[in-house]
What we know:
There is one protein chain. The chain is α/β, with parallel strands linked by helices. It is built from 7 helices and 7 strands; from the N terminus they run βαβαβαβαβαβααβ. A 7-stranded parallel beta sheet has the order 3-2-1-4-5-6-7, with helices on both faces. The protein is globular and about 50 Å long. 46% of the residues are buried.
Amino acid sequence: MTPSTSRKIVLVTGASSGIGEATARLLAERGHHVVLGARRTERLAALTEDIRAAGGSAEHHPLDVTDADQVRAFVDAARSGHGRVDVLVNNAGVMPLSKLEALRLDEWNRMIDVNVRGVLHGIAAALPVMQAQRHGQFVNVASIGAHQVSPTAAVYCATKYAVWAISEGLRQEVGGDIRVTTICPGVTESELAESISDPVGREEMRTYRSVAIPASSVGAAIAFAVDQPAEVDVSEIIVRPTASHA
């Protein structure tokens, strides 16, 4: 653990793979207790065991971020078990890219439900807890897509811009007790590309991902923000491949 930091109770959504998994492993290595949430509970169980076997502290709970009641129960379980919630990493996301003319309404709605409503559900569940305890931190994972738009990614980028805007609004509203960090990864190794049903978008993503950075690099950026002193709020980090032009 970083000498200047104390052990924190850190909740991570979308923790079964990719950035969420890498973040959970790294934060546990640094001495924090991680509370893992995702729909794929078998993966969460395996990850929890791996972390414990390595000497870390972890627990897991089933979680669908599109269900506000489940998110509230996830946060309440952490608070009941540990007396506080120090950090919520809103990481769960989906990325089924396609051109708008493909009219994939179901995929658009899924991105809105997970990428936007999921973050709002996390805020709704954890903000009253953090306000009552007079400290806390939200780490919301957006994307480089919050700053630029590309073909096939219009709706995805819109959801990630929404995450950026919600985070910035929250940061301004909560004042000095609660920190808000937005993480904007560029192309990163993950399973998100597997959700792309459009063949053109899938092929373009394979090319785009040729310079992808490991999920652990994004996890390190999240850990950096979490481990800052309480009076330091890292508002935004953009982390992307050196070789990337976007």
